[in-house]
Amino acid sequence: MLKTPSSERRFRGVDYALGFLLPNFFFHVTTAYDILRHKGVPIGKLDYLGRD
Question: What are phi and psi of 9, to 5 degrees?
Fold first, then answer.
């Protein structure tokens, strides 16, 4: 359940994970990657995607 001062929402676990949790997680990972690249950190595609 997600409560705000003006409303309350209920999620099933899978709906929360796929519709709220994962999009936010990937947004923050991508943003961190972008900031590091902008600051000149030598990070590349394989650092972001991982290795085998």
Answer: -125, 140
